[in-house]
Every structure is written in C-alpha cells, then in structure tokens.
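User: Predict Ig-like domain-containing protein's structure from this.
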Amino acid sequence: MPKLTLIGLYFWICLAQKVVSGDDLYHEVGGDLLLTPDKSTVPDPITSILWKHGKNKVAEWDKDFGGLDIYAAFINRTTLDQTTGELRITGLKKTDSGVYYVEFNSKLLDKTYTISVIKPVPKPTITSSCNPDKTSCILTCEGDTTDAEPVTYSWKVGEGAWQVIGKQLIVSKNYTGKPTNSYKYICKMKNSVSGEVSEVFGLEPVPKPTITSSCNPDKTSCTLTCEGDTTDAEPVTYSWKVGEGAWEVIGKQLIVSKSDTGKPTNSYKYICKLKNSVSGEVSEVFGSEPVPKPTITYTCNSNKTSCILTCEGNTTGAEPVTYSWKVGEGAWEVIGKQLIVSKSDTGKSTNSYKYICKMKNSAGEGEVSEPVGEVFGSEPSEVGVGVVVGVVVTIVALIVIAITVWLVWKKIKGSDVVQPEQGVTVPLTANTKTGEDGADKAGKGQGNGAGGLPGGVTEDQKHGV
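Assistant:
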C-alpha cells in the first residue's frame, strides 16, 4: 500500500509539472508562430530534433540520417532551426491549434506549448431593447465572435473609465428623466489577439443633409459637399449615390467633372447620405432640371367664401419641388402646392388680396408667379361722411340743371305761337255792342300794346324772349 501511494504521488507531481511548465499561447488566424525550446536542459550535443503536434509529426531532423522532413499540412510554411531547435509556422490556421512537444536526441522536453489559433474580434455595434415606457433599457455589445472566443466585453459610460462588465449593460432613467448613466455609451470587444471599439451610442441623430457645389470658372469640374450640422452627432459617415449607381462611402465631398461631350461623367443626379450609430438621413436629389415659372389657378365654393389656390407648373425632371407662398406683405412660407383661403365675418379675405407662389428644388429657386388678387370678386368698399356729402351735392346739382333745361325748353316751345315784331291781321268786322270795328281795336292795341305796354310791345318782347 505505501508503494502504491508513492507511485500515485509521483504521477500527480509529473502531471502538475507539465501543466505548470506549459505555455498557453494565442495567435491570430493568418499570423506566424515561433516556438523556442530551452536546449540548456540537454547536456549532450544535439543530433536530432522532432516537433510534434499532438500525436502528429510537424518537423524532424536527424544528423546521422541526414535531411529535414516537414510533414503533412505544415509543408511549405514551416521551418526548423537545426542549431537552436526553433520552429516557425506561418499562415496559421484554425486547425493548427493544439499542444506542441519537442524532442532533443529522442528525449522529450518537459515544456509543452498549447496553441490557440483564433480570429480577431469584429468591430462591435450597440443595440438597445427598452421597456414600453422607456425608463429602462438593455444595451448589448453585438458582433460575430465565432472562432474568436474567449472574448471580454468592456463598457465606457460618458467620461467614465472602462469597466469589464459583460456583453450587456442595463441603463435606466432617474426622476429627472435623464439616463442615470449619461447619454454616451461605448463598448469594446477584446480577445488575446485583438480588440475593437464600437461607435458612440446615444449620439444626436444626424440631420437631413443638403448638397452644395463649388465649380471652377469654366464649369468643367465641381466639388459637391454633403452639408449638415453634425455637432454632437459625430462620428458620421458620408455616402454618395450617382445616377442609378450603388451607394458608396466616399467622404464629405465628391468631385465630378465633364467629359468631352460636355456632359458630367457621373450623370446629372447626385444624392448624399449622413449616417451615425443612431440614425441616417438622405439628401434631396441634386442636379435636377430647373423649376419653371409658376402660375396660380384657383377654384372657389359656390358662395365664394372659400377658395383653393394651386401653384401650377410642369415639374417633370425637376422633382422633388418645394412650394412657398407669400400673402400680401407677409413673409414667404413653405406650405405646399395648394393654399386654402377664406373670407372672414366681415366679408373680406382673411389672407389679404394678393397671393404669390414660387417653386424651389436642388437646382435652385425659380421665378415668382404673377400676383393673383380678389379671388372672391370685388369687395364692398366702406363709404365715409365726406363721400356721402359729395354724392348728395352732385345729385342736387344734376336736379337743378335738369329743371333749368326744362324751363328753357318750355319757353322756347311757347315762342313758336307769337313771334316778336310779327304783324297782326285784325278783321274789320264791326262790334255790334260797342260800334267799334276791328281797326279801332287794333289802333288801341298799337297804342298801348298788349297789357297796356306802349308802342305795341308784347309781354314776351319786354322780357327779351
């Protein structure tokens, strides 16, 4: 029994020695491996070297039998230094993982080498999953770690230090409504051969970009810039889409030029996109046809209390187009293609009488339409006291003139019966009652005239009629 105990103890000591003396080494797929044995433990001159991978031979050299042999999967990528015993393997593969042993002069050295060939970690991204009221969220550091394990996950919150926490991080809001752990989160993946950091999570979303251009004097080359306020949204990536082509991550600026035909070599249509870890936005199309000069048409309801004004124009090849309106002396407003106006209780248009519209696209702002007014018809005007007095005076004057004209006409009409200084024929028939004949009466009449006027002057002649 004591003898068996000693044998068992010796076995465990040897095993422990092998475990303690072994090296656990991690190497990246595609990388190089260099194993350097300690030949000081071999007192005699080295006449043979054998490296094994598990039970399989890797490289073997024997001074007496001459030559160096490289075996199986290690051919063409393995070298052996016959003086030092160093083994170098290039282009490491996942299958190269395992335990390596070395024998000098047919004696196995105690030291072993445990090799793990792993992939580098990917650049992680942070995703979130929140409860319905958004008071608590679980952030996850995502990435394909197949053949890259073991991986450690660290987090950096705001301006704090890195902390090894795990793949997930739970954050919540405090009573102020703000996250208790700040708005900025970064995660990091790390293994024995590499480390990668995510983009910042919790950034401001990127704005909708606009494209501006700057060209040389003869317009043969232009620099397009994808503009937008990215304060607190960085880091931002800029992508471009030219014509019907695919999106390409190029940068904030794109240089375009004309070919010998005079047309842009990259087509007329350009779109840019801003993107960060929380959002992405695409610009309007740049390089559209210019917008036309619009005209305003309108339709009203039957009683002319409400009208729809439409900013008309052929926008084929010019879309997308924005429509702006200016009412009276007011400012321009981006409203839409149509504008609805109505009358107030006073019967006047609530939006003034003059309306103007204009179109705009990425190629620029077009001409302004002609003004349109009084869409509800002529409006009743307010009459002041002075105007009323003027109207009355005019009417009275017209009446006086009419009466005067009528009196003059009547007198002229009456003068047609007895004309001035016209001779009067009096019959000479005797008056049976007075014994005077017509001549006597005529003599009397000539002496006194009609109505006793001297010289036979009539009443009308007296007044100059």
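The helical segments are 2-21, 385-414, 438-448, 459-462.
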